[in-house]
Amino acid sequence: MNAIAKNPEEMSAEELYALARQREEQEAAEQEEARRREREALKEKRRELVKQHRRELAQLDREIRKLGGRVPRSGQGKGARDAGPSRVLCEIVASNPPEMTTKEIREQAQQAGLNVKNLSQTLGYLKRQGKLTSPRRGVYSAP
Q1: DSSP, residue by residue, 31-71
Q2: In this predicted model, which residue has the larger pLDDT, 28 or 118?
Q3: What was the pLDDT predicted at 76?
Q4: What is the arrangement of strands in the sheet containing 133-136, beginning at the earlier edge strand?
Q5: Residues 127, 140: contact at Cβ < 8 Å?
Q6: Which of 54, 50, 63, 138 is nearest to 101 (CA)?
Q7: What 3-state DSSP class applies to 19?
Q8: How far is CA 114 from CA 15, 105, 118, 130, 133, in A?
Q9: For residue 57, is pLDDT > 60?
Q10: Is 80 a residue whose pLDDT tops 70?
């Protein structure tokens, strides 16, 4: 007979214990699910904030360049996660919205003094890392 269908006064100690454990496990699962949903909501909020921040920075960088100024490089100093060509390629794509073709990126990278021998691999890496998006083949944009 199902322990839930029984009257608690008619249950044995083992049945009461099993019922209590079942309810504890159910509550724990519900709490974990609520935490997971909250984590996902916060992660999505963070992604949106980072995306908005990048757009705003790119806009400011374009305005600075339009006025003939130099844009400070982001991520400089010890422990920078984006090293060398990857960082420069991200800056090139971010400064030329909405999209750039591989050919345009190659030309600007050469002007910036980068070795473009492995450009396709580097762009693929940046795409996998989520630092660039590719709406279609051979076209890239900042996320």
Answers
A1: HHHHHHHHHHHHHHHHHHHHHHHHHHHHHHHHHHHHTTPPP
A2: 28
A3: 42
A4: 100-101, 139-141, 133-136
A5: yes
A6: 138
A7: helix
A8: 72, 11, 10, 21, 21
A9: yes
A10: no
